[in-house]
Structures are given as structure tokens and as C-alpha cells.
Design goal:
By secondary structure, the chain is α/β, with parallel strands linked by helices. The protein is built from 13 helices and 9 strands. The strands form 2 sheets. It has a 7-stranded mixed sheet with strand order 5-4-3-6-7-9-8, with helices on both faces. The protein has a two-stranded antiparallel ribbon with strand order 1-2. It starts with 31 loop residues before the first helix and ends with a strand.
């Protein structure tokens, strides 16, 4: 066990001696990073509890309020609710002035059920099966998660894709503008592989009145895409193709746009480039691939969101990992795509736009 100075918090100014690289005979680093990780577990469950109790929706309905009337409305213990609300305040998810609590802009937008970019349904499902996290060390030892989501893919992805739909629809709408999709001539055809609730297809069809889409996902999931198409009034422009995309064949050179929206990271290092090559084959010359995912930066140090999403995939899937921009660039160019560019329509949501030469 290493030893420490009697008073490590005091910088040693009495000597010019320096040891190690970097120097270590100075004030030691703070323990804040360790505490942040420890407290992160509790922070997550504070948010889960608040959504389960209906705190954000209740505050949306009542406006600024004290604890007692809010506790009565929610059927909660006032002192316990007060502790939960104070935790939400310090997490930056509520406002509090003189014991009166109210929604802030973050809560209004992301944590109310009908917020314009609601993530309320995502919070509980985003980490994957919770038991896998308590057994993460075993997963690292064996290379296999305790409860891989592949055992019930439709059961897991159904709630997940429903919850991610608002965010991904926004990303898709912004991407459509950025690539000039509304100006595409004729009646372009879209292939949406592993589409979930099909936010990408819905956005692309909303952009282009003559576009049509072939939407694929598992039989237990694809019904969500059918619901969204009906809600947008585009059912007549959508062909549903249920099934595992690994087993389905897609027509060669038949599509103007192929979407791989957050599916490549489920396929691992062997499967992802295969899927990219299949997308290339399905495109007409001059057609484009939209590949959306969460990408660690090339050094795997400066995009915590992408790196930690890779950990989430490792914890709960048989072959899923996240891969860097550099790796995807290699796979895309290796499949024959030229040029390849990267967009970031909203924070943390990046999209490769790759063209099949024609």
C-alpha cells in the first residue's frame, strides 16, 4: 500500500525537489471524479423515481408549488418528496426558490411526457437490463453478458425505439435538410434497415411528398413503424418488411437512400462492415447511405457519451460495441463509398453521409 504525506492537502512549498513525471510532491488530485461515479448511481435512480411518481408532469400541470400540495397530488410522503425534489434541483432538473419548486427549461423539454423532445420514456430503458450492470465483472471475464438482449430482442427494442423516436425524428428531420433531401428529383426510394419505429423514414417521407420507403424490423417491433406511418398519413407510401435483416435479401441497386440508424453497433466488428457492404449493393449509383450512431472519438478519450455507450453495448449484447469515426471511415471507403462526410445535427447524434459513386 502506498504512503502519503501527513498533510497531503498542503502543497509542499518548502523544497525545490521534484519527483516523478508529472511531479507528485504537490497537492494531490481531488477525489471528486471518484465521488461523481459513486453518486451517479443514486442520481440515476432519483430521476427514475421522479418520472415514475409523475413529478415533472404534475409540476407542468400545477405550475410553481410548495411540497405539501404536490405531495398530496402525488400521494407521497412530504418529507421524502422534499428530499427527492432537492436532489432534482442540485442535478439541474428543477428550480427552487424559497421552498417553491417549478420546472426549468430542461425538464419542460425533455422530462415531461408531452415535451417537444421528451426523453421521459427513455430513462428507464436506456441502460439495458439492470442486472447486467451488477454482473459486469463476470461479463468482462467471460466475454458474455448474463442476460443478453438478443434472447428477447423484440421485447427489449420495442420500448426502447418507442422512447427514442422523438429524438431520432428530430435528428432525421435536420439531416434531411442538411443533405438537400427535399430537392431530390423524381420519386426517390428509401430502405430503412432495422428501423424500429422508423423515425428516419417518417422524417424523409415528411420532407419529400413523392418518396416511398421500405421499412424493416423484427415482427414484434415493426408494428410501431406502422403506427407512426398511420399517424403521419403516409401508410400508402410505406412497405413493411418484417424479419431479421441478417436473413432478408434486399434488391440490388434499387434504392436512392439507405438508412442504417443505430443498428451497426449491434453487429460488432464482423457484422458492421458486412451490413455496410449490403447497403452499398442496395443503392443505385449516386445513391446515399445515412449511417447514424454514437461514435467514440478516434482516441476514445474525448467523447464520453460515445465511449460509455460502447460499454452499455458490451454489458448487454452478445456482439455489440461502439466504433470510432476512423473505423467507420475505413469500412465505408472499403465498401466503395466516395465521398464520405460526417454531420452532427444535434449534440451526440452524428451521421455519416456516404455516396455510392455513379
Amino acid at each position: 500500500m502506498g504512503t502519503d504525506a501527513p498533510y497531503p492537502e498542503l502543497k509542499k512549498t518548502h523544497t525545490m525537489a521534484r519527483t516523478g513525471r508529472p511531479w507528485r510532491d504537490v497537492k494531490p488530485p481531488p477525489s471528486a471524479p471518484v465521488w461523481a461515479v459513486i453518486q451517479g448511481y443514486g442520481n440515476y435512480w432519483v430521476l427514475v423515481a421522479a418520472i415514475e411518481l409523475g413529478v415533472f408532469d404534475a409540476l407542468q400541470a400545477t405550475g410553481p408549488t410548495a411540497v405539501a400540495p404536490l405531495a398530496e397530488r402525488l400521494g407521497a410522503s412530504p418529507p421524502h418528496l422534499a428530499a427527492l425534489l432537492d436532489a432534482l434541483v442540485v442535478l439541474g432538473l428543477l428550480e427552487q426558490v424559497r421552498d417553491v419548486y417549478s420546472l426549468n427549461e430542461t425538464a419542460e423539454r425533455y422530462l415531461t411526457t408531452d415535451g417537444p423532445a421528451s426523453m421521459a420514456g427513455l430513462v428507464a430503458v436506456a441502460p439495458g437490463p439492470l442486472d447486467n450492470w451488477t454482473r459486469l465483472a463476470d461479463t468482462v471475464r467471460t466475454g458474455h453478458p448474463a442476460t443478453p438482449i438478443e434472447r428477447d430482442a423484440a421485447g427489449f427494442y420495442g420500448p426502447l425505439v418507442r422512447a427514442t423516436y422523438p429524438t431520432q425524428f428530430r435528428v432525421a428531420m435536420l439531416t434531411g435538410f442538411r443533405i438537400g433531401w427535399p430537392r431530390t428529383p423524381g420519386a426517390p426510394r428509401v430502405l430503412d434497415v432495422g428501423a424500429g419505429a422508423a423515425p428516419w423514414s417518417m422524417a424523409l417521407l415528411a420532407h419529400h411528398p413523392r418518396a416511398t420507403a421500405v421499412v424493416n424490423d423484427l415482427p414484434g417491433v415493426i408494428g410501431l413503424a406502422e403506427e407512426k406511418a398511420a399517424a403521419l398519413g403516409v401508410t400508402h407510401r410505406v412497405e413493411l418488411r418484417p424479419g431479421d435483416f441478417r436473413a432478408l435479401a434486399f434488391e440490388p441497386q434499387a434504392y436512392d437512400l439507405v438508412v442504417l440508424g443505430h443498428v451497426c453497433r449491434t453487429e460488432g466488428e464482423q457484422g458492421a462492415p458486412v451490413l455496410i457492404r449490403r447497403a452499398f449493393d442496395a443503392l443505385r449509383p449516386g445513391g446515399r447511405l445515412l449511417l447514424a450512431d454514437y461514435f467514440p472519438d478516434n482516441t476514445r478519450k474525448f467523447n464520453p457519451f460515445g465511449v460509455l455507450m460502447g460499454t452499455t453495448m458490451m454489458a448487454s449484447t452478445e456482439r455489440g460495441f461502439c466504433f470510432t469515426h476512423e473505423r467507420f471511415q475505413e469500412w465505408l471507403e472499403g465498401a466503395g463509398f466516395r465521398p464520405v462526410r460526417l454531420l452532427e445535427p444535434i449534440s451526440y447524434n452524428q451521421v455519416f453521409v456516404a455516396t455510392r459513386p455513379g
